[in-house]
Design goal:
Number of helices: 4
Strand content: under 5%
Shape: elongated
Radius of gyration: 38 Å
Order of helices and strands: HHHH
Number of strands: 0
Largest sheet: none
Length: 161
């Protein structure tokens, strides 16, 4: 019969150490993968946010042109384009301004109604309070009294059973 410790077989301690090292490497690799994915998502989000902000700025700066176009369109619709005069441009611009205020008020009302429906995360708050209450009342487990040191022969005999 061959010796079980001839160099090809590893001891239990070596196996545990190897498994621990491999598990640690796996956890580190998983963390690195999660960081890479989050970094990529943050980069995409930043680019999307910058593009959205740029679009909003361009739209904001184009609103005066829309107001001018609306005012001149009202003037044209009321007969100003063929030399008959139409409405005075002052009234056309005031009507254009009133339309913009109406649209802004409508959007503000929609935003207000959506924000009014927001609620705090009640389940998360309740869970956190429950966990805090449990942890506040928790007492540490007493450590077992240390047993006297055993001789090596009894440990080997016990582990082989």
């Amino acid at each position: 019969m061959s010796d079980p410790f001839d160099g090809t077989e590893r001891s239990l301690g070596q196996l545990v150490a190897s498994a621990t090292a491999e598990m640690s490497a796996l956890v580190h690799d998983e963390i690195a993968l999660a960081k890479a994915e989050i970094r990529q998502d943050v980069k995409r989000g930043a680019i999307g946010s910058a593009a959205g902000t740029a679009a909003a700025v361009v739209l904001l700066f184009s609103l005066p042109m829309l107001s001018f176009a609306l005012a001149y369109a009202i003037n044209t619709w009321t007969g100003g384009h063929n030399g008959n005069g139409g409405w005075n441009l002052v009234w056309c611009f005031l009507l254009s301004f009133a339309f913009n205020v109406l649209v802004a008020a409508l959007l503000g009302l929609i935003a207000y109604s959506k924000f009014k429906k927001l609620k705090p995360p009640e389940k998360s708050i309740a869970s956190a309070k429950q966990t805090a209450a449990i942890m506040q009342n928790a007492k540490p487990h007493p450590r077992p009294a240390q047993q006297p040191a055993l001789d090596k022969a009894s440990v080997v005999a016990r582990s082989s059973v």
